[in-house]
């Protein structure tokens, strides 16, 4: 992986150096005229809704050092302790998609979102290099190149790599070395607008390739053992020795919009093709020896092959959307029909009954064809008030309806989602799990009230309160298999974001409270605190502009979901309660013209009061690590 990163880095530097020689354009004073002001970006949804807004690209250093902002989803996640590992949202999120869904989302946050890509409009070629290197083997690399072919047609390409080394049992290096994570992703994107401004086309292709070495967490002896003794890292025994997950996904997305009557009536068509293949292998199925106790297996069952596992789940989806939309100064509307075709296919290997060597495939598959209709109506007055109603209905099955009212900084919303089980919750075939469920659709009702705005000249506040009621909730139980509840799950909470400034000193806080007293199967921390205190301004005798500060992240202790690598699902457990443990980072960031740089010492408090902490049961969080990052932007 390091060699791949180095080669990619050198090739891109060579490309950029060549471009710098041949493509630099200057004005009469020989001063370079291109900058972030001439490199703009826009999003397809803005164009679809009549807001052709081109914004300057983000060149700020705000949150540059924060790991959550290195990926494509900045929400809070529970993960397996290292960068790039399988993850699920830490706080509860209402479902946002209905109908057939694969249900394998453990690596979503690392993939480019084809529906939310930023397209460019550049007067000159634009590119950036983003590189992060950590002392514990964390690596992240991204390169983007975009340029206008004509003033109305832009094309771009991006490539990203993500890697991590093992923390656990790294002294017992196998054939794969001590690497834990290898991610490789990319995107190709283009936007075209006709000369008469009546037609827009957005097209992108995104891909992600993941390999995660599965260790199954630390090996815990069945006899009573203090948890503090499970943080030996390099020599710590783990549950799995030769297991791995591989995921390959690709997505083709097309949107084109035609103005039939200016902004009052537009026709649009959206086409999406999605392929995802997940493979789980373990070439050494063997009992896990727990001290002097009886040997036990990590897996609950072995159905087809007692020597090794080779499970594959492949999902294909093709979706077409045909719609019309329009907007004016006081309102906007949208109506559409959607056709979704999907197929899932499972396979695993089975040993012949009288032959312990030769294997055969066991396969199962299902197909889905679904039709949806939906729409949206928005009424608004300047930027002061807004009323929005939207809904989507799968014929004779699922639906999602939502209403939002906003007045100034105050907003209230009501939402109901009738949701069928995902493909994986309903149907699965593997060497260790088999089910074919007949679950009913669940119902999620959610109400939110939100206020955001300034308090004077130095403070900003965002306060949200929410209440959620879930009927017929589907989750993965203690046996790591899906289960549907008959009783309701009710949870409520509040979130507060606050930023106050004292001259050059800034204090930012995010606090989330969630009450799950009536939702014992929904596992989220009751409290989550994320605080940052920093100085922002000229540093080192005005040599550069930047930030210097400390950040603390602390979820409250709770019975967090465990992780089952065979199915890529997090599941409920009651064996271990994660501690309330703060992770402290000290950082410095700098803005040097077109280069952003950060230095960070993460988890500086390691070992001060306990040897480590778990992010997921039996998956330790990262140890202390010195991390360096750079983002280098080129505008010519």
Helix content, binned percent: under 10%
What portion of the residues fall into strands of 2 or more residues? over 45%
Low-confidence stretches: 1-7, 9-30
The chain-level structural class is mainly beta
**Main beta sheet: strand number and arrangement?**
22 strands, antiparallel, barrel
The number of helical segments is 3
How far apart are the first and last residues' alpha carbons, in Å?
A: 30 Å
Shape assignment: globular
Total strands: the figure is: 35
**Alpha carbon gyration radius:** 26 Å
Mean pLDDT score, rounded? Answer: 90
How does the SSE layout of this entry go?
Elements: H1 2-23, E1 39-43, H2 44-48, E2 55-56, E3 77-79, E4 87-89, E5 118-122, E6 126-134, E7 139-150, E8 153-165, E9 179-193, E10 199-214, E11 243-261, E12 265-282, E13 309-327, E14 331-351, E15 359-381, E16 385-394, E17 399-407, E18 410-419, H3 423-426, E19 427-429, E20 434-436, E21 442-455, E22 459-471, E23 474-476, E24 482-484, E25 489-502, E26 505-518, E27 527-539, E28 544-555, E29 562-564, E30 569-571, E31 583-592, E32 595-602, E33 614-616, E34 619-620, E35 625-634
Antiparallel strand pairs: 1-2, 1-5, 3-4, 6-7, 6-35, 7-8, 8-9, 9-10, 10-11, 11-12, 12-13, 13-14, 14-15, 15-16, 16-17, 17-18, 18-21, 19-20, 21-22, 22-25, 23-24, 25-26, 26-27, 27-28, 28-31, 29-30, 31-32, 32-35, 33-34
């Amino acid at each position: 992986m390091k060699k791949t990163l180095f080669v990619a880095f050198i090739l891109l530097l060579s490309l950029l150096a060549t471009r710098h020689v041949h493509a630099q354009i200057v004005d009469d004073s020989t001063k370079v005229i291109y900058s972030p002001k001439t490199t703009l970006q826009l999003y397809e949804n803005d164009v679809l809704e009549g807001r052709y807004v081109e914004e300057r690209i983000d060149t700020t250093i705000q949150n540059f050092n924060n790991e959550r902002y290195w990926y494509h989803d900045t929400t809070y996640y529970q993960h397996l302790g290292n960068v790039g590992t399988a993850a699920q949202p830490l706080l509860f999120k209402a479902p946002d998609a209905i109908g057939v869904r694969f249900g394998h989302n453990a690596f979503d946050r690392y993939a480019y979102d084809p529906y939310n890509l930023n397209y460019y409009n550049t007067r000159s070629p634009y590119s950036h290099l983003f590189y992060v290197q950590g002392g514990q083997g964390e690596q992240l690399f991204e390169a983007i190149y975009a340029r206008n072919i004509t003033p109305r047609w832009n094309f771009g390409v991006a490539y990203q790599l993500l890697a991590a080394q093992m923390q656990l049992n790294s002294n017992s290096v196998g054939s794969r070395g001590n690497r834990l994570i290898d991610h490789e992703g990319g995107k190709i994107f283009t936007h075209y607008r006709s000369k008469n401004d009546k037609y827009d086309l957005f097209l992108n292709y995104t891909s992600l390739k993941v390999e995660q070495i599965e260790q199954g967490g630390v090996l815990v002896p069945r006899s009573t053992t203090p948890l503090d003794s499970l943080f030996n890292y390099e020599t710590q025994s783990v549950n799995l020795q030769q297991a791995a997950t591989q995921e390959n996904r690709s997505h083709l997305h097309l949107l084109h919009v035609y103005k039939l009557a200016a902004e009052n009536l537009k026709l649009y068509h959206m086409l999406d093709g999605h392929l995802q293949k997940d493979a789980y292998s373990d070439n050494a199925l063997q009992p896990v020896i727990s001290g002097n106790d009886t040997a036990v297996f990590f897996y609950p069952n072995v159905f087809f092959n007692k020597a090794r596992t080779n499970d594959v789940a492949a999902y294909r989806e093709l979706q077409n959307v045909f719609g019309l939309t329009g907007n004016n100064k006081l309102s906007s509307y949208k109506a559409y029909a959607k056709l979704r075709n999907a197929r899932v296919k499972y396979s695993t290997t089975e040993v012949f009954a009288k032959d312990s060597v030769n294997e055969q495939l066991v396969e199962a598959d299902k197909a889905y064809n679904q039709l949806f209709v939906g729409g949206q109506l928005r009424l608004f007055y300047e930027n002061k008030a807004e009323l929005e109603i939207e809904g989507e209905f799968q014929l004779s099955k699922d639906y999602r309806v939502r209403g939002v009212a906003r007045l100034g900084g105050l907003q209230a919303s009501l939402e109901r989602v009738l949701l069928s089980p995902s493909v994986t919750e309903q149907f699965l075939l593997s060497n260790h799990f088999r089910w074919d469920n007949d679950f009913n659709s669940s119902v999620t009702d959610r109400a939110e009230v939100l206020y955001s705005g300034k308090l004077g000249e130095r403070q900003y506040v965002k306060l949200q309160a929410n209440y959620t009621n879930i009927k017929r909730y589907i989750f993965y139980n203690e046996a790591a298999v899906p289960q549907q509840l008959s009783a309701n799950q009710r949870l409520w909470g509040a979130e507060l974001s606050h930023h106050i400034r004292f001259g050059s000193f800034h204090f930012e806080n995010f606090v989330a409270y969630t009450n799950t007293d009536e939702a014992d199967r929904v596992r989220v921390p009751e409290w989550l605190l994320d605080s940052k205190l920093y100085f922002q301004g000229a540093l080192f005798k005005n040599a550069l502009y930047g930030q210097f500060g400390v950040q603390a992240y602390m979820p409250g202790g709770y019975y967090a979901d465990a992780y089952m690598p065979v199915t890529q699902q997090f599941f409920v457990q009651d064996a271990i309660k994660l501690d309330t443990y703060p992770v402290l980072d000290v950082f410095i960031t700098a803005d040097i013209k077109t280069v952003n740089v950060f230095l960070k010492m993460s988890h500086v408090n390691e070992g001060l009061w306990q040897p480590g902490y778990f992010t997921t049961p039996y998956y330790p969080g990262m140890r202390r690590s010195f991390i360096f990052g750079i983002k280098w932007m080129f505008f010519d």
